[in-house]
Amino acid sequence: MSWVRVVKPGGTVALLFWSSQKLLPGYPLLESRLNATCAANFPYTEGTEPETHIMRALGWLRAAGLQELKALTFAANAEAPLDATIREALTASFQMFWGKAGSELDPDDWKEFQRLCNPNSSDFILNLPDYYSFVTYTLFFGRTPV
Q1: N or C: which end of the chain has fewer CB within 10 A?
Q2: CA separation (Å) from 104 to 26, 32, 33, 91?
Q3: What is this structure's pTM?
């Protein structure tokens, strides 16, 4: 990894990734089916080497010669009432993760996704007065040799 060469000796290299989410409270089976689609796992499609998955980042850092490797996971939540910025981010996340999954889902699941995740729907999930969700982020980091 050529970017390590621009970090001073003893410096830190950190990689932060979104690692999981629960965004559809009350619909765990639908969310599981959505998460199982290729669209939700892009670019990790069939035939992709396991070593390229973000949860293998410690190996990337080790291969780059970094030391004192660590991984930490953090959770962030969203709870109603949602401000405009969080609503916009969650709406974008629905589309980013699952917006192209229609061809991989049962038509009823796709219809349910659209009902819950379309801001123009009367059943838009972000309008629930008790909406709660969370995401996790994983930070991988290590130090360059001194």
Answers
A1: C
A2: 22, 13, 9, 21
A3: 0.81
